[in-house]
Amino acid sequence: MEKKKDKIGVYICNCGTNIAKVVDAEAVARYAATLPNVHLAKTYKYMCSNPGQEMIAEDIKENDLDRVVVAACSPNMHERTFRSALRMAGLNQYMLEMANIREQCSWVHKDRKAATKKAMALVSGAVQRVLKHEALESMSVDMNPSVLVIGGGIAGMTAALELADAGNFVHLVEKDDHLGGNIARVDLTAPYYYSAVDLLSERMTRTFEHKNIQVYLNSKLTELSGFVGNFAAKIQKQNGLSEDEAKAKEVAIGNVAICTGYKEFDASRVTHYGYGKLPNVITSFELENMLKSGKVETKEGKIPKYVAIVHCVGSRNKEFHTYCSRVCCMTALKYAHEIKSANPECYVSDVYIDMNAFGKGHEDFYRQSSKAKTLFLMYDKENRPVIHKAGPKDDCEMLIEVHERLSGEHIEIPADLVVLMVGMEARDDSHEIAHLTNISQDKDGWFIESHPKLEPVATTTDGVFIAGTCVAPKDIPDTVAQARAAAARILARISKGKIEIDAVFAEVNEDVCSGCRICNVMCPYSAIEFDEEKKKSHVISALCKACGVCVAACPSGAIKGRHFTDQQILAQIEGIFSKVEYSEPAEVS
Amino acid sequence: MAEEKQKIKMAVYWGAACGGCCVSVLDVHEALFDVVAAADLVFWPIALDTKYQDVEDMPDGFIDLTLYNGAVRNSENEHIAKLLRQKSKILVAYGSCSHMGGIPGLANFSTKEEIFDRVYHDTESTINTERVVPQPEFEVAEGVLELPVFYNDVRTLADVVEVDYFMPGCPPQTARLVEVFTAIVTGAELPPPGSVIGAGDKAQCDECSRKKTENKGVKKFYRPWEVVDDGETCFLEQGILCMGPATRTGCDFRCIQGNAPCRGCYGPTPDSTDPGAKMMSAIASVIDEKEPVAIDKVLDDLVDPAGYFYRYSLPSSYIRRKMS
Hints:
The complex is a heterodimer.
Chain A (H helix, E strand, L loop, with lengths): L7 E6 L11 H9 L4 E7 L5 H14 L3 E6 L2 H14 L7 E5 L1 H5 L5 H19 L8 E4 L4 E4 L3 H12 L4 E4 L22 H14 L3 E4 L2 E9 L2 E8 L5 H4 L2 E5 L1 E4 L3 E3 L16 E3 H10 L12 E8 L14 H15 L4 E6 L9 H9 L4 E4 L7 E4 L8 E6 L6 E6 L1 E6 L1 E3 L3 H8 L26 E3 L9 H21 L1 E4 L4 E3 L19 E4 L4 E4 L9 H5 L5 E3 L4 H11 L13
Parallel strand pairs in A: 1-2, 1-3, 3-4, 6-7, 6-12, 7-8, 12-23, 14-21, 15-16, 15-21, 16-17
Antiparallel strand pairs in A: 5-24, 9-10, 10-11, 13-22, 18-19, 19-20, 25-28, 26-27
Helix pairs in contact in A: 1-5, 2-3, 5-15, 6-7, 6-13, 10-11
Chain B lengths: L7 E7 L5 H7 L4 H8 E5 L8 H5 L6 E7 L2 E3 H13 E7 L1 H5 L11 H11 L14 E4 L2 E4 L3 E6 L9 E3 L6 H12 L9 E2 L57 H4 L17 H12 L5 H9 L4 H5 L15
Parallel strand pairs in B: 1-2, 1-3, 3-5, 5-9, 9-10
Antiparallel strand pairs in B: 4-8, 6-7
């Protein structure tokens, strides 16, 4: 056996000034160099940069290092980066430990002395821990090229076609009796007045006719088991008539794309807009229907003389949803334009909070629209307008009271038709989908990405991707981009044929397991099975997400969390509690 | 084979112990004659009239095998532990107290002062108006009298001296002792120093004949007398705390065979260092409630949890003692 060297390299990142402005990185490096087994300790401006990674790889080769500590940001951020630096140098990637001296230190402290001492303690813990690290090998499993796409809107169809065109079989599940989703309810789209039907129809036809796509209408996912590369999904037809239809169909798939979209905000929840009580207060979707039929008129069949469009209904407000629904501002401008072009005599007022025009071409669209003699009135988001019926002497149906912010005046405007720009919200059944596919939702019910910036379509469940407005409100171009991104992510994995599974998972030492079965129902991922014959529990490693629940539950220590063993954690604790000294250098001016 | 086998020299000592371990040695019954045929008992305070001075006079390494039972509670226990270490080739921590601290180790939930106050002043049957407490030294006309110093902490044998082997149990099963003794006198290959001997590597559940399912969820804990045990179902599944899942085999699940839940005297399995923490963690996992208030209510039924989970292992655990 090769002699154990245990030579550790410690790398302290300045993160520009993110770390260095609060933590004396040089002092941490000097301290690290005094720790047992530490062969060298260095600081660098950006350790995650290419030169930083190359420095680590070079050091490993030149100095024969066999363990590495990087004191930088959260391992969630850059553990993969530094693992690849280790691999580059031919070292097992699990011989790395990161000390988080940014999120857990420099970003949350102001006192330089205390923060530096804390950084030293964290580094000491990491050094002690890395000494207990074991070289681990990742596993690989076969990737089933079939894909389950949930949702038959623009996102779902786009993803399905992308995958199917590349030669993979797609099971597309849609809960309604037709494809098209929310866009099917729209007439023209902003800002270029493309017809929604045109955007959809070609896709719908191709989806239905594609030899690689099986569409399940009126259907729902009822069960998802297995793991990335090898899922089994149950698809259940709703209100199936025949016996055959009532039986859930089970399909084998390798990946899942969730494109379940949004639902519109229920406008009747905003009581003083009178939706549901005042007949001529309608939602944006109801106006779309009128525009489709080519007639914008009141319930009484009259051409409205005054139309008011109210923004942010259900959005950007503490009472309902604090977020912006992103598409309503431009849609509202589109309505103003359409109403004006149909009836130039009509007075259109646009009652808004802010005009959000961040998309491509949107600012130009806003500028053009504002020329169209629309009356823009700005209201405060915590001080909503009030809509009530007009008196017999007024020449309009309703009056809207607005505290206009720009003029500072209390204004009353007439309206025969009020259009409420209803925002987007998470679908009622989104928690069902989240539960079935083991993904998370934020406080508003939107599905959570595995990284909001760098992994916008991946989730924390491997093999489950999300795209479109089930993730957060967005417009059609962003939705399509995400659908294609999710498809691309899946295609990349299919083309590899195999999938690497992180070597960090729980495993049962069968020589020690006594078959007490305490762990059996603990696993949130159903990764534990009990072998009745051997009377032992077993962890299916590909299903395990390394959460550690079973490790904690196992009373005999038979279940080990790889890379998170008791010995590693205890060593880290011991390291953190070691005594550290730091005196601030005299101010240099 | 006329060649007479060399008899081994053997010692048995008790530190802070109840005497049960010594009785377990006596429990070999008629096999005691075989033991005596194979070993010379050179020191055994419970059975032989040998003195400490006799041990001190022995050359180093004179004794082949010493079974030290009992925890290290006072200066006398420590002194003899060190003396026997010096005089013995093989030193075995015999029984739960020397292995993990045992029942005397539960005194680590109190300080020395609290113990003295209770024992010498506060017990209902004590009248001690002069407030006399034991002193390590006391001068009388004839000279200075000495008493062992009572330590604040109860420690395990391994905390004080290097131990060759650990034989768990309260007391260790006599059959296991005979196996170990036979192995030593026949010169069988012994496991590496520091090993646990006379016990298995798995937890009690491996041998336990009670029916075990995955339905471990507990909504209420019961003490054994509160339920009519069906004699067949896993104790935990009946809401009765049982240390079996965290405890080594070696006793043939005797308590459970007697319809009493395991108390944990055989100590942790090889991959676990702190059976109390492991069992608490396991119990926390099986409580079938989600709301903090409901969980508290379930936990309220656990009488003396610290004493339960650490009944035999407090001095050897991570927490070691109550912080004063």
